Amino acid sequence: MQKRVGFAGLGLMGSRMARNLLEKGFPLAVWNRTAERCRPLADAGAQVARTPRELAEGADVVVSCVADPAAVERLVFAEDGVLSAARAGFRYLETSTISPDLSRRVAEALRTRGADALEAPVTGSRIGAERGTLLLMTGGRKETHEELLPVMMAMGTKAIHCGEIGQASVVKLIGNTIISFMLEGLCEGLVVGRRAGLSPETILEVVMASGFASPYFTFKGGAIARRDFDTHFSIDLLVKDQGLMLDEAGARKAPMPGLAAIREVFQSARGQGFGGEDIAAVVKVLERAAGL
Ligand code: NA7
Questions:
Q1: Where are the chain's structural domains?
Q2: Distance from the CA of 226 to the center of ligand 1, in angstroms?
């Protein structure tokens, strides 16, 4: 028997992940803060829930894909939240990127009601969500990981169990730290290169023929060369993750001087009005600073 899925959060990622669940045959209900955004999925056959509680009442598992910790607080702990409908056997799959602490708090609250949560932050961006090729990293009980594997494999191609609840959130934040460094390095280099009269194409040709080549440089470097800042992953959300990582590092007494500096550059991008644009748009801040 396929699980009945309730999907909360139909943004850039969630709307595409939910569609894959529907197309792969899962009975689906959806909820989104702005109800209007449920329409395309309702037209495709999904039920629409009026509240997260209603969503949870009619589902065996609720999948969450919302922006940030405040959104998860609302979704789970509000009076009409998911927690109020949790019962024995109910499952909650958290694909949003949030703090390890909040992830643990959600799981503890659900477990007191005989339910369970698995954190499963994703990577693969908008294209991976659309094609159903996301990589999921999970934290929580191994049995719950196994139980929810069919649901996860409707949205992605691989799910790696990282450890107990909270640990996958740390791995996800490490990943977004690496993205931050790669992008900052690429953008700083492209700006100096432009100043020196080099084209982005020449720089990228050498990078991609080198031992430090990465598909990520082709993806983001290509977008920058085309001046295409259509959002795959927004600056607002990456700054949220950089902040979560710096909080985690602080709690663990581990310095992150590089990330702290990079976060200021991305924060400037928000200040200059680029928060909703793709993370590649951070190059515009560095170009302005260089007088380009
Ligand atoms: P988007 O496209 O910014 O979508 C964010 C979603 O979160 C969207 O459905 C929002 O609802 C919802 N949201 C935001 N704030 C709230 C609150 N306070 N309460 C309830 N729902 C809320 O993000 P992405 O799809 O790119 O990313 C989603 C997650 O995956 C995020 O954690 C990333 O870091 C990874 P709205 O439609 O605005 O009403």
A1: 5-163, 170-289
A2: 28
- Taking the C-alpha atoms of residue 92 and residue 88, their distance in angstroms, rounded to an integer, is 12
Mean pLDDT on 1-26: 97
Can you tell me the distance from the alpha carbon of 244 to that of 225, in angstroms, rounded to the nearest whole number? Answer: 30
Is the CB of 265 within 6 Å of ligand 1? no
Average pLDDT over residues 159-163: 98
Strand partners for 159 = 136
Smallest CA separation from ligand 1 atom 30, residue: 96
34 Cβ below 6 A of ligand 1: yes
For 26-61, what is each residue's pLDDT tens digit?
999 999 999 999 999 999 999 999 999 999 999 999
pLDDT tens-place string over residues 83-105? 999 999 999 999 999 999 999 99
Residues 6+ apart with CB under 8 A from 266: 180, 235, 238, 239, 242, 279, 282
The reply to whether ligand 1 has any atom less than 6 angstroms from the CB of 18 is no
Per the CB < 8 A criterion, the answer to whether 160 and 135 are in contact is yes
Q: Is 3.30.360.10 the CATH classification of the domain at 170-289?
A: no
Return the best residue to mutate from 7, 33, 179 for the ligand 1 pocket (most ligand atoms within 8 A of CB).
Answer: 33
Q: 203-258, pLDDT tens digit by residue? A: 999 999 999 999 999 999 999 999 999 999 999 999 999 999 999 999 999 999 99
Residue 176 CB less than 6 A away from ligand 1: no
Whether residue 156 has its Cβ less than 6 Å from ligand 1? no
CATH code of the domain occupying 5-163: 3.40.50.720
Check: CB of residue 8 under 8 Å from CB of residue 57: no
* Residue 204 CA, ligand 1 centroid: distance in Å: 33
In degrees and rounded to multiples of 5, residue 226 shows phi and psi of -85, -5
